UniProtKB/TrEMBL annotation:
This is Rhodanese-like domain-containing protein. SUPFAM superfamilies: Rhodanese/Cell cycle control phosphatase. Residues 16-101 form the Rhodanese domain. It comes from the Bacteria. CDD domains: RHOD (cd00158). Pfam families: Rhodanese (PF00581). PANTHER family: FAD-DEPENDENT OXIDOREDUCTASE, PYRIDINE NUCLEOTIDE-DISULPHIDE OXIDOREDUCTASE.
Amino acid sequence: MAREVTQEAFAADWADGALVVDVREPDEYTAGHVPGARLMPLRTVPARCAELPAGRPVYVICASGNRSRTAADWMTSRGIDAYSVTGGTRGWARGGRPVTAGAPEHSA
């Protein structure tokens, strides 16, 4: 089962340059995402999991926390140090934290 991280703990790690993977669909990501988050839609995670670094925490985020738990479970089962961000991007934005709109500059 995926480990979860609170918004507060995630915000601190994000400020220190944490690797963030957004598993929402491209249109959701474009509408607003955590700055620096890499897009990897949930349906692509099984095929793209090997692209993620070993030995470095990966913070997985979606809209509310459901898809990120699924993705983090998958990643964890493949040996990736993955954490699902509780509350997702909605919680991040509700907390007054920065959100960036626009197409992905890169994907995970």
